[in-house]
Amino acid sequence: MVAGRRRAASPRIRKAEGTRTRRRRMDLSSLPSRPLTAREVAALGDSDAFVTVRPVERFEFDAVDGTLVVAAAFITNRGVRGVAFDPDGGWSVVHREDLDDVASIEDVPESAIGAAQRALRSEVDDLERERGFGSRLVEAYERHA
Fold it and tell me: Cys staple from 35: which of 68, 92, 102, 127, with CB 3.0 to 4.6 Å?
């Protein structure tokens, strides 16, 4: 958006941060200490707590009945939060873009969602390079299911 101009169809962007940084402020205490299931992500998206929740990175394992979501974009009335699960560190916010007046997904620029998806994919790519990542995901899921 051009500085000083306001678009009627888009929210004003107060602060956009495209850099990956661990442990940004967002209360993640209600998330379980394990990857989410696809059903749980859908339920969060349908809840009144969020405008919507979009899964970004998912894994399927023979040992787990269902799909494990390890990265998701949480769209709130205050913006976009990219949240990822690390089997050793739990959930963390790896991307944040604050927006004003988000009432529906149509109020969020595609560029904001795309930036969150890129940051989350990069984070998960880094995690996947770690030895035993898949095993640790399954263990975290089974331990806290």
Answer: 68
Average pLDDT, rounded, for the chain: 83
21 DSSP assignment:
-
pTM equals 0.80
Residues 119 and 116: their CA atoms lie apart, in Å, by: 5
Rounded Cα gap, residues 35 and 140, in angstroms = 7
* Nearest by Cα to 117 from 49, 9, 18: 18
What SS3 state is found at 65?
A: coil
The CA–CA distances, whole Å, from 73 to 27, 119, 121 equal 14, 10, 11
